[in-house]
TrEMBL record:
A GO molecular-function descriptor: 4 iron, 4 sulfur cluster binding
Cofactor: [4Fe-4S] cluster
Methyltransferase is among the record's keywords: no
Alphabetical UniProt keywords: 4Fe-4S, Iron, Iron-sulfur, Metal-binding, NADP, Oxidoreductase
Protein name: NAD(P)-dependent oxidoreductase
Lineage top rank: taxon: Bacteria
Residue ranges annotated for the FAD/NAD(P)-binding domain, each copy included: 151-458
Residue ranges of every copy of the Dihydroprymidine dehydrogenase domain listed in the record: 25-136
Length: 484
């Protein structure tokens, strides 16, 4: 049966779910493509070659059992496919939407190398779990036998939520603290709806809350409790705050009104979509409507910004990036989507200065050329003398990536050890910081990275924390419940 259902990549072509026309999708923040019909999902899954060494799984940070759930999908065994997909990932339908599959699983698909076009893994993954939610196959989170031990998780992004889920299933009391008024971190506030509609995240949060995980919204460490007080309240802590400090540009005029940070811009847009009062949006400070917009950067955050600006009704949208298309860190699929929606990419260009005092009026830039490879292995950009040019701009969005905030100072914990990059220093065998019982995972350890890596880190740290608590052997009163 399996052999008959698979290996159809020679006679069946690659077909992603159809995208809405660019001019239509640019008018709203809904996802740009619908999911497969069942027959189409089965057909596309059947293209898998079931190769002996599944490079798709090898290059997936979660090592998802991709060929196996593709085979089950092709055979019409969707519930089994979901259960297998769900066994390695806490958020498969989210990864199916926002993972850069072109750089991970699909980019390493064997039939892609043979010229037949990769299996559409992400779209099938999205289809499987969306179907599971509709059919009621997604089981409630059920806590294991109570251990009498309490865990505090600081940060409600993908790493923190993943760890919280596994630790609750192990029987621990789990409290999640986050400074925002909604759980989900960048899944809620940093990623636009056209890539990840927010009800998809909300239903995951509700499942965790229904499973007994306690969420403390609007909670800031040092303001509402010190790190030491949280250590006293819980038997173990996890720091999973992510990295939120925007990397700076050093150039004349960078402080002019209208030169803004990418995350401020994206959060304002997402808050507006929730119906929140957003004064910075209403004033126009974080609203691209009618403006000439220049986004600086070449990662996925930059792509989120340019595509958001299009939907806000910008007059023009340009993306300024210092390398070429082949060397940009963002998803090539996102670049293609942006170009279809009218974004102009200005490759091999870097800002030199920003015009305007009362408000930004333009970006002075210079052309770049690629020199020798740098430490990352990519050819380093260097200015091309005499190639200066200017772009009109009423709104400039800086999207050059993120660094860690100064957690020791922010948390009032001077003894908390950090690396020279500002990330938290951990013992990589245990994922524990230099403080006993205080663990760390996700971007705050590895630096700005992908959601799928955060989920992997959350899964791993949950195992380490459970082992730590088991070895500790302490059956304590539910201190966190008393404090709540």
């Amino acid at each position: 049966m399996a052999e008959q259902a698979m290996l159809k990549f020679v006679g069946t072509g690659q077909a992603y779910p159809e995208k809405r026309a660019a001019e239509l999708r640019a008018e709203d923040f809904e996802e740009i493509a619908k999911r497969y019909e069942t027959a189409k999902a089965e057909e596309q899954a059947s293209r898998c070659s079931q190769c002996g060494v599944p490079y798709c799984s090898v290059h997936c940070p979660l090592h998802n059992h991709i060929p196996d759930w593709l085979r089950l999908t092709a055979e019409g065994r969707l519930r089994e496919a979901f259960e297998l997909s769900n066994s390695t990932s806490t958020m498969p339908e989210i990864c199916g939407r926002i993972c850069p599959q072109d750089r991970l699983c699909e980019g390493n698909c064997v039939i892609e190398f043979s010229g037949h076009g990769a299996v559409t893994i992400g779209s099938v993954e999205k289809f499987i779990t969306d179907t599971a939610w509709e059919e009621g196959w997604v089981e409630p989170l059920v806590a294991g036998k109570a251990t009498g031990q309490s865990i505090g998780v600081i940060g409600a992004g993908p790493a923190g939520l993943t760890a919280a889920e596994y630790l609750r299933a192990a029987g621990h009391e789990v409290h999640v603290y986050d400074r925002h008024d909604r759980m989900g971190g960048l899944l809620v506030y940093g990623i636009p709806g056209f890539k990840l509609e927010k009800p998809i995240v909300k239903r995951r949060i509700k499942r965790l809350e229904d499973g007994g995980i306690v969420f403390h919204r609007g909670f800031e460490v040092s303001r509402d409790a010190t790190l030491e007080q949280l250590r006293e309240r819980h038997d173990a802590l996890l720091i999973a705050t992510g990295v939120y400090k925007a990397r700076a540009i050093k150039a004349p005029g960078v402080g002019a009104p209208g030169v803004v940070e990418s995350l401020d811009y994206l959060i304002a847009s997402n808050r507006k979509s929730f119906g929140d009062a957003v004064p910075e949006f209403e004033s126009g400070a974080l609203n691209a409507a009618g403006k000439n917009v220049v986004v600086i950067g070449g990662g996925d955050t930059a792509m989120d910004c340019v595509r958001t600006a299009v939907r806000q009704g910008a007059k023009s949208v340009k993306c300024l990036y210092r390398r070429d298309r082949a060397n940009m860190p963002g998803s090539q699929n996102e670049v293609k989507n942006a170009e279809e929606e009218g974004v102009e990419f200005v490759w091999l260009s870097a800002p030199e200065a920003f015009d305007g005092t009362e408000a930004v009026s333009g970006v002075r830039a210079t052309k770049m050329r690629l020199g020798q490879a740098d430490a990352s292995g990519r050819r380093a950009p260097e200015p091309d003398p005499g190639s200066e040019f200017r772009l009109d701009a009423d709104l400039v969005i800086k999207a050059l990536g993120f660094d860690p905030e100064e957690l020791p100072r922010l948390f009032g914990a001077a003894d908390l050890s950090v690396t020279r990059w500002g990330t938290l220093r951990v013992d990589h065998k245990s994922m524990m910081t230099n403080m006993d019982g205080v663990f760390a995972a996700g971007d705050i350890v590895r630096g700005a990275s992908l959601v799928v890596w955060a989920i992997r880190d959350g899964r791993d740290v949950a195992d380490h924390m459970h082992s730590y608590l088991k070895a500790k052997g302490k059956v304590a009163p539910a201190k966190a419940l008393e404090a709540a």
